[in-house]
Amino acid sequence: MLPFFDQDHLALRERVRAWVEANLIGGPAGEKNLEDEARRLVKRLGEVGFNRHAVPRAYGGAREKVEARDLCILREELARGSALADTMFGMQGLGSYSITLAGSDEQKRRYLPKVASGEAIAAFAITEPDAGSDVASLKTLAARRGKSFCLTGTKRFISNAGIADHYVVFASTEPEKKAKGVSAFIVDANAPGLIVKEKTEVLSPHPIGVLAFENCEIAEDAMIGKAGEGLNIAFGTLDLLRCTVGAAAVGLAQRALEEAVRYAGARQQFGQAIARFQGIQFKLADMATELEAARLLVYQAAWAHDCGNEDAKQKSSMAKLYATEAAQRIIDQGLQIHGGVGLIAGSIMERLYRDIRALRIYEGTSEIQKLVIARGLLK
Ligand SMILES: Cc1cc2nc3c(=O)[nH]c(=O)nc-3n(C[C@H](O)[C@H](O)[C@H](O)COP(=O)(O)OP(=O)(O)OC[C@H]3O[C@@H](n4cnc5c(N)ncnc54)[C@H](O)[C@@H]3O)c2cc1C
């Protein structure tokens, strides 16, 4: 990783790694209730200063500009210890970066310092029942009523639904303009007419649910940027976060490799450690090689983003696509090396096997990443 890191990145990686070892891998068990644990993690990540890497220095952040490399380092190391810790950190970035990108100074001062300190939980709401990969077809309406907007519609698969303090919400202010009529808003969790309709249970523990906006009235100054800029703001946010999903996948896969090496060395069959069988060694070699390739793609993409390179978007799609798909294969092989032990509910391999799955779907499925990559080639 050295070509993409400076001394600050290396120091950050050491600090996060040590914290993860002490608090997530070696630390006491967290709260039993998912939402309580999610809240506790955001607070802890704020106290140790990690959330500060999700916002700019002027608003309580660690650096002048939010860096993709910092986010990737944090997500890789946190995911190695706990998928939920990674999710909660990632969401502080996803649910605030639209404000960093296009918000007014007043909006930044109001929301960003609390995201950095862990006092507030952030969320990002674009997906709808009929608008998943095709986000431009979203139907949530934001109708102007004098000095306010009235939101009506439904958002689903919204991470942090029910525990967030604010939601960055994308809604149409001019439906006839389709994609160009979408605007971005900050909706406080206590806004009248904002209802958490459902807490959705998914494969791996993740606070997520359905939001309904039933004549939800918000002030006109809740709009981020200008009317019609919503999708550009959403895509600008996802452009930063996309490679960080790849980094989380690398962290989960790294843990799987470590666990597989340890288990293969300890498990005896046919009178020797299974690590002595070439069939197992080949699996470990494949896992390690794919992991290294994934990590290089992720940090190359993060570096390209931080440098403002023209091909950063394509590189970050490649990084997300390859890292999440490779991590799924690596974890599957790691579980295979564990035999039946890998399937025991609550064991680390069983957990990783479930934790990795969503990453190939959220923030752009693997298929959508391929479309972005191909579009770049064919333009
Ligand atoms: C754990 C989790 C957390 C999430 N968190 C959030 C969040 O915080 N905020 C938020 O707004 N959303 C969130 N989402 C939603 C997520 O971004 C969407 O699930 C994702 O974009 C895919 O949309 P969809 O599920 O509707 O699938 P669909 O778009 O219906 O896709 C179904 C299948 O069709 C494929 N497909 C679709 N279009 C094409 C095409 N043109 N070419 C080829 N194949 C295609 C897809 O790749 C997929 O395999 C989350 C989802 C999950 C699972």
What spatial form do the alpha-carbon principal axes imply?
A: globular
User: Which fold name corresponds to the CATH topology of the largest domain?
Assistant: Butyryl-CoA Dehydrogenase, subunit A, domain 3
Chain-averaged pLDDT? 97
Per DSSP, what share of the residues sits in E-state strands of 2 or more residues? Answer: 15-25%
Largest sheet: 4 strands, mixed
Helix content: 40-55%
Query: How many angstroms separate the termini?
Result: 31 Å
Class computed from helices, strands and strand pairing: alpha+beta
Q: Helical element count?
A: 11
Question: Which CATH architecture of the largest domain would you pick?
Answer: Up-down Bundle
Number of strand elements = 10
CATH class of the largest domain: Mainly Alpha
Identify low-pLDDT runs: none
Strand-and-helix sequence, N→C? HHHHHHEEEEEEEEHEEHHHH
* Total domain units: 3
Spatial strand order of the main sheet: 1-4-5-8
Layout of strands and helices, then pairs:
Layout: H1 7-25, H2 34-47, H3 68-81, H4 83-94, H5 97-102, H6 105-117, E1 122-125, E2 141-145, E3 148-159, E4 166-172, E5 182-188, E6 194-199, E7 208-219, E8 223-224, H7 230-266, E9 268-269, E10 272-273, H8 278-307, H9 312-338, H10 348-355, H11 366-378
Parallel strand pairs: 1-4
Antiparallel strand pairs: 2-3, 3-7, 4-5, 5-8, 6-7, 9-10
Helix pairs in contact: 1-3, 2-4, 3-4, 3-7, 4-7, 7-8, 7-9, 7-10, 8-9, 9-10, 9-11
Bound molecules: flavin-adenine dinucleotide (FAD).
Flavin-adenine dinucleotide is lined by residues 124-127, 132-133, 157-159, 202, 206, 208, 358, 361-363, 365, 367-368, 371.
